[in-house]
Recover the amino acids of this structure.
DNA sequence: TTGTATGCGTTATCAC
DNA sequence: GTGATAACGCATACAA
């Protein structure tokens, strides 16, 4: 009896068939109250609870989704994961979480594993712009996959929820330009991600639209050999006419803030800094970073609700949603023209 | 054929029995190379991959663990979750993640759900000191549960991995006291968690051991009505003889830093601040918070490896490990006596 | 209203 | 070496 009891054990104890046990378990209407009572008693006595694995097998439904994130230690991912977890629990879905940026297994393989675990759908929070293997897998496989935050370059038939990153960059840039900044440095993440590609485009477009010259010396892509911190310190020391930094993520912005502090530059008096993502720490009064909001919560909720709709075929595919970004002005930028 | 193929489809195509398909799938030794070839071809052709749910049912093994965290938006949890996820994937375990601090479902219920999903073990990263319902569930249920970071008060038979929080507090306090601080404020989280209980104990013991009086006015427990920020500002304005703050978490420490900045106090010249947890942001050069390290990675690895040992009955129960905390001196405290 | 038989997609135990 | 056949723990069609 140390084993977990099953529905047959309950049936035997209650003096009914296993089918009847299943019936009371699933609240079927036409069960005689007295039998129901007996079964309930037996369930209680044995501490029986149905095995969800067996249930999944026969019902061909697992009530589980997969969530693939880039790196949980990155606040953006953990904060969105938190929101998605929360939404999922509301509709009684479990989530199997995996990291996609792993070095020894490709995103396609991770998705494959999830599919074999019979998840009903997958949210992918980080995908490279080009992934031919993945594109192939997506057409072959049967379950819905929704990209979140980042998407594939040629996403004709893929589902995604993103913010308008290009527009977000423009918002940030216009905020700086309106405050009188002319020399604006830009630090980007890896251009292989659509987010950074689009944000960079926005940076360049904003410059062009405001008749400011693009200067490659003011632009830097973080890489294993070069940090945003070092680049910023260099720039602050050698290019005193640079008065503002646009960071493609809040995390990068934090490094710039440190660079400023090390170079004895006051923020925002000497140099303005603006980020992108609006991770939680940015609103911390100690940091008070001006940034562009990705609207994490909204995006997360939309990702989950739309994935469920896709699972239940309640929506036409592909689902492609682009949210409006939002400028959040806090303490690391001056907004001269706004203080008139 | 739009349905997912199963082992019978493969068998039919290869002209063998389904049993044989299973054999090549599981790399059984005595399969004739030519048959194996045929089967592999059929598998390839159909794009067949075994259904892990069915496999789990018959093998009574899911290769899945449950991970219950407090709140993923809290860096400590996301960073440890990341480490655990990583360790799990190394040994090919999947993890179903759930939040335990939810308001409409108790921790016991969450664990129950996980058990019904047939996870093989559970890591619980946040538990209250007293939870009678849970204690009862733990004795009834059959799978190993390991507490991580926090544990129950009367944990005679429970498995846990924690750091020595009391000692950690003493390390922090001695660091401050050796630097000449006499009036040290303390801000704690909810005392219903063992972490905060132990840390508070450490604070008081350190005072006593150094012949410093305990002053209730310098101690504050964050609550819905009162923030660390407000309390700190009050103190900084009205008690100028308070020269140091010991925060029971790094997140609280960040608020204190802001309070200092708002009150025009320099850190560490005017006031020292020390935290607890060593979350990633603390090492950011912009923050450079002195803190006590929880040794997240170590704890995470230990939690997972020991959970697996418990699952495989390779270790005697209970597993109870207390790690040594580590003082990490960065820029928010002065260490006068160390600079001799 | 209840029970019997069957099947979900595998692995395990026998035979041959 | 290989193939029937019986589990695993449930839900469901069909009978009664």
């Amino acid at each position: 009896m140390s084993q977990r009891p099953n529905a047959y054990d309950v049936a035997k104890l209650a003096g009914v068939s296993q089918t009847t046990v299943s019936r009371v378990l699933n609240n079927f209407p036409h069960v005689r109250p007295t039998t129901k009572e007996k079964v309930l008693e037996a369930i209680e006595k044995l501490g029986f609870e149905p095995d969800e694995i067996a249930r999944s097998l026969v019902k061909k439904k697992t009530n589980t989704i997969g969530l693939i994130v880039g790196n949980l230690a990155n606040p953006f991912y953990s904060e969105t994961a938190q929101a998605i977890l929360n939404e999922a629990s509301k509709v009684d879905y479990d989530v199997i979480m995996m990291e996609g940026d792993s070095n020894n297994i490709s995103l396609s393989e991770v998705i494959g594993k999830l599919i074999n675990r019979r998840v009903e759908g997958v949210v992918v929070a980080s995908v490279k712009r080009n992934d031919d293997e993945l594109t192939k897998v997506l057409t072959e496989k049967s379950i819905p996959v929704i990209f979140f935050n980042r998407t594939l370059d040629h996403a004709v038939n893929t589902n995604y929820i993103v913010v308008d990153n290009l527009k977000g960059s423009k918002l940030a840039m216009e905020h700086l330009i309106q405050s009188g900044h002319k020399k604006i440095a830009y630090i980007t993440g890896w251009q292989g991600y659509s987010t950074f590609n689009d944000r960079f485009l926005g940076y360049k477009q904003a410059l062009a639209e405001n008749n400011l010259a693009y200067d490659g010396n003011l632009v830097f892509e973080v890489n294993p050999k070069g940090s945003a911190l070092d680049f910023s310190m260099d720039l602050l020391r050698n290019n005193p006419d640079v008065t503002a930094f646009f960071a493609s993520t809040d995390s990068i912005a934090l490094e710039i803030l440190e660079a400023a502090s090390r170079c004895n530059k006051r923020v925002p008096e000497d140099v303005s800094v603006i980020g992108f993502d609006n991770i939680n720490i940015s609103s911390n009064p100690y940091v008070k970073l001006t940034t562009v909001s990705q609207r994490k919560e909204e995006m997360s909720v939309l990702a989950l609700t739309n994935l469920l709709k896709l699972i239940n075929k309640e929506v036409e595919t592909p689902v492609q949603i682009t949210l409006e970004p939002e400028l959040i002005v806090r303490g690391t930028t001056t907004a001269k023209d706004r203080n008139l």
